[in-house]
Specification:
Helix 2 packs parallel to helix 5. The protein has 146 residues and is an all-alpha fold. The chain contains 5 helices and no strands. It has a single domain, classed as Up-down Bundle (Four Helix Bundle (Hemerythrin (Met), subunit A)), CATH 1.20.120.330.
Length: 146
């Protein structure tokens, strides 16, 4: 008999991964526009990482608050899954992408990432998504996730 909470966690983690996948699709479309919408792509990259890190935390039964702070989520996720650290290194710097290009009138000291930088970000996000999905497969097969 399966644990109902485990099933709920698995479903929630899968939903987080799906939302992250949608965000990466939108980010790619932003880059395909002429001219590309770099701020929009950056925003959706940041959102994808938030959802993937939250999927890790849900899988690992790590309590977390509602936040988009990648520094904090990174610490929690790598505490539960240290092997993720090399994949997510540098992603915490993307926290600012969640707001800086989305609100008019603010002082934007942070330069927009380049199209090449965002393409690299999407490749890093794909690696993180694969790692998160591997955690899910390990859980479903009864193998320890850490």
């Amino acid at each position: 008999m399966s644990d109902p909470d485990a099933l709920d966690r698995a479903e929630l983690a899968e939903r987080c991964v799906q939302i992250a996948t949608d965000d990466t699709r939108v980010a790619r479309r932003c880059l395909d526009l002429v001219p590309p919408v770099l701020g929009g792509a950056a925003y959706h990259c940041q959102q994808a990482v938030v959802k993937l890190l939250k999927a890790c935390l849900v899988r690992g039964q790590v309590e977390f608050r509602k936040t988009h702070d990648l520094f904090w989520l990174f610490d929690l996720a790598t505490g539960a899954y240290p092997h993720l650290a090399p994949i997510v290194v540098g992603m915490s710097e993307w926290t600012i992408w969640g707001a800086v290009y989305r609100y008019p009138g603010g002082k934007h000291d942070h330069p927009q990432p380049t199209a090449d930088g965002l393409a690299q970000a999407l490749a890093s996000i794909a690696a993180l998504r694969e790692a998160v999905q591997t955690l899910g497969r390990r859980t479903r097969n009864g193998i320890a996730t850490a």
